[in-house]
Write a structure and sequence with these properties.
Shape of chain B: elongated
CATH topology of the largest domain in chain A: Arc Repressor Mutant, subunit A
Helix content of chain A: 25-40%
Radius of gyration of chain A: 21 Å
Strand order of the largest sheet of chain B: 1-3-2
Helix content of chain B: 55-70%
Number of strands of chain A: 11
Strand order of the largest sheet of chain A: 4-8-7
Largest sheet of chain A: 3 strands, antiparallel
Number of domains of chain A: 2
Low-confidence stretches of chain B: none
Strand content of chain A: 15-25%
Number of helices of chain B: 9
Mean pLDDT of chain A: 87
Distance between the termini of chain A: 61 Å
Structural class of chain B: mainly alpha
Radius of gyration of chain B: 30 Å
CATH architecture of the largest domain in chain B: Orthogonal Bundle
Number of domains of chain B: 2
CATH topology of the largest domain in chain B: Arc Repressor Mutant, subunit A
Largest interface: A-B, 34 and 27 residues
CATH superfamily of the largest domain in chain A: "Winged helix" DNA-binding domain. Chain C. Domain 1
Shape of chain A: elongated
Oligomer: heterodimer
Largest sheet of chain B: 3 strands, antiparallel
Mean pLDDT of chain B: 80
Number of strands of chain B: 7
């Protein structure tokens, strides 16, 4: 069979390995498996960036209409078999898809490489995906604050995650925002402040 | 012929011997001179040839092939690298070409090892190396690859061209393929990369145990294939990446 790239309805270019049925199975050979995990990781990160997705859940592997279905499933894999092997076709609809356990292992691998973080912590079913590292988010956040002239004023989290004019930080999950703010705090560029209805943050000019 | 008798004859003989010696050294001197000037001419001609055709040699596979045949008929290969090519290689400035190609072959073999376990089909290798060289690198052929792999031999990395069922493959890991694996690869090629146990039981009359052992060895011990545990017909199918066609 020929393996080729494929463009999804959302305009994402799937790599050719995504059309290999075996890509959806965990490999017993450790070297092969680490290569497969690497490819999955890259795929998850680039897709997350493409769709601006922040959270990946193990359950996403079981749902047919999750945000991630375009990469976690491959409907084309079995359509091809249907043509040749319709006699063997089972009544269920078997399509190429990653199994939850496999996805869970990939997420755990990503967490170990700091490319994701379990959120909330102390569970392993859901994770923030770092298609930008928290350090990069911190710089983007700071540049954005400077660009809208809000240094030294107090901003709520809501001001940042849902600004009147869409920004690169629109819809950023609060836990990720907190990480970015605390990274800026280390260089004295941000300060958490308790305000009447929760928490706010003040950004300060870079100390020379 | 009159034969000299007496003492005077010795002198005469000595004399003629000397003259002959002079004549012969004269002759060989002129021959050497001749040869030198011929060699000089040849050198200039070759350098001229090299400077006018260097680009074609590097970029045009057919031209390179013809050039190589010409060179091998006089017993040198300027493309084989500075050491083997001697001053030819330096003169032509082509010596590094083969080494450069060697490095690119290693690059492709190593970077695809994760998915094919160190066994790659020749045409696939040619395609990937060509892609790596880009447009400006010019075309390369199987012949070029085979030669480059030979120049890699002193490195002892185990690069080898093996033939499986009439199809050339390049192996970049030191691992002997046993007979059963060779059969598996051949069948996988027929089937576009996907094989299941029944293929071998039906087509080759293998027992299930033998089939399973051979496939599982390839899968787990050698990393030469991938498992599809969700295969809808067999439940367990083996995919052999080196027998599959990759578009990108």
């Amino acid at each position: 069979m020929s393996l080729s790239t494929h463009t999804t309805p959302s305009g994402f270019l799937l790599p050719s390995i995504h059309s290999a049925p075996a890509f959806f199975t965990e490999q017993p050979n450790p070297t092969t498996q680490s290569s497969a995990t690497e490819q999955w990781t890259r795929l998850i990160l680039t897709y997350a960036r493409h769709r601006k997705l922040f959270v990946l859940r193990v359950e996403d592997a079981e749902s047919t209409d999750s945000d991630w279905s375009e990469i976690l499933r491959n409907e084309r894999i079995n359509r091809m078999f249907r043509l040749h092997l319709h006699a063997f076709q089972r009544s269920s609809s078997p399509v190429g898809r990653i199994l939850p356990n496999h996805l869970s292992n990939i997420i755990s691998n990503m967490v170990s490489k700091n490319l994701a973080a379990y959120e909330p912590p102390k569970q392993t079913r859901s994770a923030l995906i770092f298609w930008r590292l928290p350090e990069e988010w911190a710089e983007i956040l700071y540049d954005w604050v400077v660009s809208i002239g809000q240094l030294n004023t107090i901003l709520t989290f809501y001001d940042i995650t849902d600004p009147p004019v869409e920004s690169p930080l629109t819809n950023i999950p609060v836990p990720l925002l907190r990480r970015a703010i605390s990274i800026l705090g280390k260089t004295g560029r941000s300060q958490m402040i308790a305000i009447a209805d929760g928490e706010g943050v003040r950004f300060l000019a870079r100390s020379k | 012929m009159r034969r000299g008798v007496g003492l005077a004859a010795f002198d005469r003989q000595e004399q003629s011997k000397r003259s002959f010696a002079e004549l012969s050294s004269e002759l060989s001197r002129s021959q050497i001179e001749n040869l030198h000037s011929q060699l000089d001419q040849f050198r200039t001609a070759l350098a001229h040839f090299a400077s006018t055709h260097r680009e074609s040699i590097k970029s045009d596979p057919t031209f390179r092939h013809a050039f190589r045949q010409m060179c091998s008929s006089i017993g040198v290969d300027p493309l084989a690298g500075p050491r083997q090519g001697g001053w030819w290689a330096e003169l032509l400035g082509l010596g590094d070409w083969q080494y450069e190609l060697g490095v690119q072959i290693v690059d492709v073999c190593v970077s695809t090892r994760g998915r094919n376990g160190g066994l790659i089909e020749m045409s696939e290798l040619v395609r990937l190396v060509s892609k790596l060289r880009g447009m400006s690198g010019g075309g390369i052929t199987e012949d070029d690859i085979v030669r480059s792999i030979k120049t890699l031999q002193p490195l002892g990395a185990g690069y080898q061209v093996v033939e499986i069922d009439g199809c050339k493959m390049v192996r970049s890991v030191v691992k002997a393929l046993d007979e059963d694996q060779t059969v598996i690869l051949a069948i996988a090629r027929e089937k576009g990369g996907r094989v299941v146990e029944d293929d071998f039981i039906r087509q080759k009359g293998w027992t299930r145990d033998r089939t399973r052992a051979a496939l599982e060895n390839m899968l787990i011990r050698d990393g030469l294939c991938w498992l599809d545990a969700q295969d809808e017909t067999a439940g367990r199918a083996y995919w052999i990446p080196s027998a599959m066609q990759w578009d990108a």
